[in-house]
Design brief:
Length: about 160
């Protein structure tokens, strides 16, 4: 991610180039205010799932770094979820990935036109994240159920791998 030396220099850790307004990202001059504001807002969100989804969405929207914003947003979201003992969320196939790209794009476009109004497009992004979480919980539940139902066969299989 970011190198510690970067913070010690006079360089800004945030992107310094403008994104296309069409993409819905704020200009570089506002990033230094938006990132601390995001973390302040997160402190007031009590629901850990919503906190994770909001972090993900806002890092993508603000796009504070020159690159790896998607990776940082997903890692942060999953870290928040796992901190609260939820399973991480993964995009599980190409259709899910395309849906993810479409939903974030539509959400940013909507927010560009209707600043500070989370509406249908943003809700769609959150709904898809919720479905991914349900998928992960279901997969984890089935794995635990399989282990409980067949502990000896699973242990034998494990000993063969080791």
């Amino acid at each position: 991610m970011l190198e510690p030396e970067l913070y010690q220099s006079e360089l800004s850790p945030y992107r310094e180039f403008s994104e296309s307004e069409f993409e819905g990202h704020p200009p570089p001059c506002s990033i230094e205010n938006l990132v601390p504001l995001l973390f302040e807002e997160l402190r007031h969100i009590n629901n850990p799932v919503m906190k994770a989804f909001y972090f993900h969405h806002e890092i993508l929207r603000i796009k504070p770094f020159s690159n790896s914003n998607d990776l940082i947003a997903r890692m942060g979201k999953n870290w928040i979820l796992m901190f609260y003992l939820f399973p991480p969320i993964f995009i599980h196939d190409i259709n899910d990935y395309e849906s993810y790209l479409r939903s974030k794009y539509l959400s940013f476009i909507h927010l560009t036109k209707n600043q500070n109004r989370l509406a249908f497009a943003t809700q769609h992004f959150f709904d898809l994240e919720w479905r991914r979480l349900e998928f992960s919980v279901g997969k984890l539940t089935r794995s635990i159920h399989d282990l409980v139902e067949n502990p000896v066969s699973k242990a034998v299989g494990l000993s063969q791998v080791l």
